[in-house]
Design a protein that fits this description.
single chain, 382 residues, alpha/beta, 5-stranded parallel β-sheet, 3-stranded parallel β-sheet, 13 helices, 10 strands, globular
């Protein structure tokens, strides 16, 4: 090992000797010292300058690396969107679904009116492979007869092929996802929503709903936030007037589920309770008409594989598969790896915005089958 202190002392003494006695400077030792010192200094400076957004660790553990090319059971993806741009893209998606074992994809359109009709036509060539769900029409929501008109449009969409509603979405200021008009200021438990929620129950239309964001997005964007970069990207600004926090939004969902027992609700992204799955567990225990999809939160539950596995095994009758991440082979295979394998300490930097490692849950075949297909078929009633 290179000894900096002794080498520095030797170089200094050599230089003094050179001055006093006229001898040549110890050039070899001086060069050796300078080289090692500069390398050490350069390394230290580089480490100090690394930014978290650029941190891309590569696991060096020599552990099993699974390649799961196809879902263990034919899967129903209950959370996708209108990602294809052309008919040819739809054709390619169907081909990919065949290859990776996706039996059906549910397109959450957010839409009503002409926009919904156009989207329904887009996927009509594959009636057994896609379902297009509609949104709620919030146009004129402050007018006295809004609920009746919104229900009429819901029924029209049903008659045009919609078999569910979604994705509704509320991050604190009211429903924001629906097209053409968002329902800002209106939460899912608003009394004006009651006729719509009841009609969904009458028609057998499940409601896919996103409330809040995960806990990291409410924490300060500082050095204590272990989901920092992704949390900063999706940070919820709680300074906005009238905005509801995470727990208040969970309450709006609970009240809607409680007050409409004939209507099936699917809480997107595990109700954004990944930091505290006991919150979702309480709701699942209390309300048999509530399900949850696991879409776009694989990176949030994969870091806690033992706890997440225990949760999913216990509530295997109430969880459904979803992606919400476009459509690509690599994306699907990543979800299969997390659910099915026992792989440890691996990264998916190109897929997720966190810097933490992921782990496979190695779910039981019984639970996998329920999450991939059985529960979805029960919800779809076919």
């Amino acid at each position: 090992m290179f000894n900096y202190r002794s080498t520095l002392l030797s170089v200094i003494l050599g230089a003094v000797q050179c001055v006093i006695f006229g001898q040549e400077a110890p050039s070899a030792k001086l060069k050796d010292f300078r080289l090692n010192f500069l390398q050490r200094t350069e390394l230290t400076e580089d480490v100090q300058q690394i930014k978290l957004k650029d941190y891309r660790p590569v696991s060096i553990y020599k552990t099993p690396q699974s390649k799961i090319p196809k879902a263990k059971y034919p899967a129903i993806d209950l959370h996708t969107h209108d990602n294809p741009r052309t008919d040819a893209d739809v054709d390619r998606w169907v081909q990919l679904m065949d290859e990776v074992g996706i039996d059906k994809s549910v397109i959450l359109s957010y839409s009503t009116g002409a926009a919904f009709d156009a989207m329904a036509r887009k996927y009509a060539r594959y009636p057994s492979r896609f379902e297009v769900w509609c949104g709620f029409d919030y146009t004129g929501m402050d007018q006295p007869d809004w609920s009746q008109r919104a229900v009429a449009e819901l029924v029209r969409c049903y008659q045009s092929g919609a078999r569910g509603v979604g994705e509704l979405g509320d991050k604190g200021l009211g429903e924001l996802y629906s097209k053409p008009t968002p329902g800002r200021g209106m939460h899912i438990n608003d009394p004006r929503m009651k006729p719509l929620l009841m009609k969904c129950g009458e028609l057998g239309m499940p409601i896919s709903i996103h409330v809040a964001e995960d806990a990291w997005m409410y924490l300060p964007s500082d050095s204590t936030n272990d989901g920092l970069m992704n949390a900063a990207k999706w940070r919820v600004d709680m300074t906005k007037e009238g905005i509801l926090n995470h727990d208040q939004l969970i309450t709006t969902l609970e009240e809607a589920v409680r007050d409409n027992p004939r209507t099936t609700f699917i809480a997107c992204h595990l109700a954004n309770c990944n930091a505290d799955l006991s919150q979702l567990a309480r709701l699942l225990d209390a309300y048999p008409n509530l399900y949850a999809d696991i879409s776009a939160r694989f990176a949030e539950f994969a870091p806690i594989p033992r706890f997440a596995k225990a949760f999913m095994e216990k509530y295997s009758d109430r969880l459904v598969y979803g992606t919400d991440m476009g459509f690509s082979r690599e994306m699907y295979l990543t979800t299969f790896r997390i659910l099915e394998s026992a792989d440890e300490h691996f990264y998916e930097h190109n897929r997720f915005g966190y810097h933490w490692p992921l782990y496979g849950l190695s779910l039981s075949p019984r639970t996998l089958k329920k999450i991939y297909q059985t529960n979805a078929r029960k919800i779809l009633r076919r």
